[in-house]
Amino acid sequence: MARFAPTQLDLDGKVILVTGGTGSFGRRFIETVLQRGRPRKLIVYSRDELKQSEMQIDYAERFGPEKMAAMRFFLGDVRDRERLSLAFRGVDIVIHAAALKQVPAAEYNPSECIHTNIMGAENVVRACLANHVKQVIALSTDKACNPINLYGATKLASDKTFVAANNLSGDIGTRFSVVRYGNVVGSRGSVAPFFQRLIDRGANELPITDPRMTRFLITLNQGVEFVLSSLDVMHGGEVFVPKIPSMKITDMAAAMAPGMATKTVGIRPGEKLHEMMISADDARNTVDLGDRYAIEPAFVEYTREPLMGGALAEEFSYASDTNAEWLDGPGLMAMLHEEAPAQRRRRAAD
Fold first, then answer.
1. Percent of the chain scored above 90 by pLDDT?
2. Which residues are catalytic?
3. Residue 206 has what DSSP assignment?
4. pTM of the entire structure?
């Protein structure tokens, strides 16, 4: 099910920190690095002491004392700039995955979302510059393109903050880039685990927000490979967008529960019918790199060689309903099968 070839990026001897390191992406990223390389330090930065404790126990059993010698567990919040500055000392690479991501929660609690997603991004940038971090990748979302909800708007602001940070690094040389991708099959907030829980509980119908709805789909493993390979090719200032398939939510329901009835329940506040990752306006600054697109920075005041890639057609946009690649039922089930071991571990931990 590999979509992005494993990178040749050498992480041996590096100090790597992941904000939001106890989340779905953070855990998978850290597991992958532990399995493949020998980093000098691998730092989990998050504010949930229980998840950190559970992670230490789980990883000690799975990876053993030699790999665990590199692990560090740092309690802290991205809202706390001083704590970030302490955590980032001596760090080579920062992966910024911490965010408030639930669309309805963000609509109801806007100030909390703004403080974490926007001000937290600014704090991460300043801490990276203060500590001369070499490379920074920030995780974004398809909801940041032409946003209609607060979560998407805060992530767009975060993306702009990280892209512009390259103009502040001067002789420090820190390089910042962003990765933007769609619905992650297997993550806690994804529709597939939600459907699976209902199926396991004996539901006789699945709720569909709108039968026309489409989404981009990617697995956690693919997301990790995409971030690692983007680290390998980044020049600083890019927003990397993977080429991934789309699927109708009705087709997803039919693949997971053949013959089960569905019920249309309506789109939630702040939810789109279709997602977009590159708008027609973004496309003018975007290059095609084969397995991904890269939105190049429009404003550059630092030494940077542009990425060599193909230009996009006039009025090109990359949206889930007009995507050239579509996922069928067997393809979805292969994705879910790939995520099944991690899902079992997560249920056991919960």
1. 80
2. 143
3. E
4. 0.93
